[in-house]
Amino acid sequence: MKFFFIFIFITFINYSLLINANTLDEIKNRGYLSCGVSENQIGFSTINDEGKWIGFDVDICRAVASAIFNDPEKVEFIVTTSSSRFPKLAGGEIDILSRTTTWTYSRDTNLGFDYSGISFFDGQTFMVRKSLDIKNINDLQDSTICLVSGSAKEFNTIEYFKKNNIRFNILNVEIDQDALENYLADRCDAYTNFYSELSILRVKIPNSSKHMILTDLISKEPLGPLVRHGDNEWNDIVRWTLNVLIIAEEYNIDSINIDTFLETDNAEIKRILGIIGNYGDMLELDNSWSYNIIKNVGNYKTIFDTNLGQNTALKMSRGLNDLWKEGGILYSPPFR
């Protein structure tokens, strides 16, 4: 009897993996990609005045849809919250989760998900008033910082400042909203959060031009798209969609100039554009899948600048999200 139940359990696991391994076929049969995003997160995922989803995370899904259908509009965007995002992905309601979700050990190993790469290198930093003339974290010597008691952000701040011999005072609060309100009331010199969150908050607070965000980071918060564990082929598609966006920027290929590269002598570019090789077959996609991504969506720089860059409300600098040869750490494996 014991061996019978073991057999049934193994059979169930294998059956689950078999179901989970048909994501691409399900998407093709359905006719569109189902993408989980955040609700109304400026720069990352929001609905514009024309009722269209826009944002950095939104464009990642449009790129995936372009790889599959050669149509960036074949995406259904489903709003997820911090509490609903993982159940919706695990339950198959969405094919991909593309929202500000940090890649951590437990999420990668214990929740049954796979991260498909890092689309945005985030981290904890500080917002300060420009009038204080604070340029970097070292200038926070003897400052007062609003911190939520027992939070990870409090731990990160104490550890970093202790390690770097920076004296500071703590104004402890119960929730993050209290920390922000005390900062805005001038009871603290600095408010701390993730760089992405601070950029969004700065747009919303009164007199936003009087505040600045330090570029120094005191923690690692790598953000990226997630898929369900057990479908390696689907994970490959999402991962290499992101990689193609990065490689395209490395070669300065975008949606405007891409056709001028069709006569190139560069072998890697030829592989990317589907001129040589059968690289689409490896993913069960058309050989022009990566050409379609760039033609329809652009490259990583296009997506970043359009949604997050200096000409947007967020005015984010590239920082770590710049290419590896430009001082950042954005990097893709070679396309060969």
Description:
The structure is a single chain. The protein has helices at 2-20, 23-30, 56-69, 85-90, 105-109, 152-163, 176-184, 195-204, 232-250, 267-272, 289-297, 300-307, and strands at residues 33-37, 46-47, 53-54, 75-79, 96-97, 113-115, 120-122, 124-129, 143-148, 168-173, 190-194, 211-213, 221-223, 226-228. The chain has 336 residues and is an alpha/beta fold. It folds into 2 domains: 2-121 and 222-326, D-Maltodextrin-Binding Protein, domain 2; 124-219, Periplasmic binding protein-like II (D-Maltodextrin-Binding Protein, domain 2, 3-Layer(aba) Sandwich), CATH 3.40.190.10. The strands form 5 sheets. The protein has a 5-stranded mixed beta sheet with strand order 10-9-11-8-12. A 3-stranded parallel beta sheet has the order 4-1-5. A hairpin with a 5-residue loop joins strand 2 (46-47) and strand 3. The protein starts with a helix and ends in a 29-residue tail after the last helix. Mean pLDDT is 92; it is low at 1-20.
CATH topology of the largest domain: D-Maltodextrin-Binding Protein, domain 2
Q: Uncertain runs with pLDDT below 50, 5 residues or more?
A: 1-20
CATH superfamily of the largest domain: Periplasmic binding protein-like II
Beginning-to-end CA distance, first to last residue: 51 Å
CATH class of the largest domain: Alpha Beta
Largest sheet: 5 strands, mixed
Q: Which structural class do the helices and strands define?
A: alpha/beta
Q: Provide the domain count.
A: 2
Radius of gyration: 22 Å
Q: List the helices and strands in order.
A: HHEEEHEHEHEEEEHEHEHEEEHHHH
Side by side, the strands of the main sheet go 10-9-11-8-12
**Rounded average pLDDT:** 92
Number of helices: 12
